[in-house]
Amino acid sequence: GIQVEQSPPDLILQEGANSTLRCNFSDSVNNLQWFHQNPWGQLINLFYIPSGTKQNGRLSATTVATERYSLLYISSSQTTDSGVYFCAVDPDMEYGNKLVFGAGTILRVKS
Amino acid sequence: DTEVTQTPKHLVMGMTNKKSLKCEQHMGHRAMYWYKQKAKKPPELMFVYSYEKLSINESVPSRFSPECPNSSLLNLHLHALQPEDSALYLCASSQDPRAGANVLTFGAGSRLTVL
Fold first, then answer.
1. Ranges of chain B with pLDDT below 70
2. If interface means Cβ-Cβ distance under 8 Å, which residues of chain A face chain B?
C-alpha cells in the first residue's frame, strides 16, 4: 500500500517562530489532507490539497503532486498551535475516501 | 451545524460487556467513517459507510460491529473486547463519497478503556 512519511517527527519552537512540516508519499494521490490534533484528541482539517497552494491565515500548504510531497508552513507560531500535525492521503483515483495517515509531527510551541 | 458528535466521550468496560459508541452528524454528509487511534499513533481506518451501506471493512475483528441506521447516525457495537482494544475511537463524515474532494470532518472521539 501507499507509504506516507512525515518529517520532522518532533519540533520545538519559540513563540513567534516559523516552521515547515513535510509529507512525502510513495504513489500518486487523489486526496491529500492536513490535520491538526489538539492535546484533547480533536482532529481539525486544515487543508484539502491534492495539488497546488492554499493559504489560511498564518497557515499555508503546498503540494507538488508530480514530486510526491506536500509542505505545511506555520508562520508566527502561537502556543495554541501545539499538538500533532498529520498528513493523510488516498491513492484511489476514483473516489478518495480511504485516507492513510502519516505518523505525524509533534509540535510544541513555548511561550 | 458543522459538527460530528460522538457519545460517550469516555467508556470503561469489562471484557464480557456489550456497549455501543454513537456518532451523529447533521451536515447532510453521505459517507461516515470509524477510525481507531492508539496512543502516540496515527488514526487507522476501520470502516466506511457510503450511502448507508458498508463499503469498506479493513479486516476488523467481528467483536466490532458497525451499524448505520440512517444517513445521520453511525454506531459501533462492542462485544467481548480485549484490553488491547483500548484506544480513542474517532468518527468522521464527508459530503459525497463519489466526489473527488472528499474532505473529512472528525468528531472529538470516544476514549475506550477495556479492563
1. 1-2, 99-101
2. 30-31, 33, 35, 40-45, 48, 86, 88, 90, 95-104
**pLDDT 10s digits, A60-78:** 999 999 999 999 999 999 9
Most B-contacting residue of A43, A44, A51, A63 (CB-CB within 10 A), to test interface: A43
Cβ of A43 within 8 Å of Cβ of B106? The answer is: yes
Cα separation, B19 vs B53, in Å, equals: 22
Which among B1, B67, B64 has a CA at the least distance from the CA of B28?
Answer: B1
Supply φ then ψ for residue B61, to 5 degrees: -55, 150
What is the interface size between A and B, counted as CB pairs within 8 Å? Answer: 61
Pull the grid cell for residue B17: 460487556
Tell me the pLDDT tens digit for each residue of A74-111.
Answer: 999 999 999 999 999 987 766 557 889 999 999 999 99
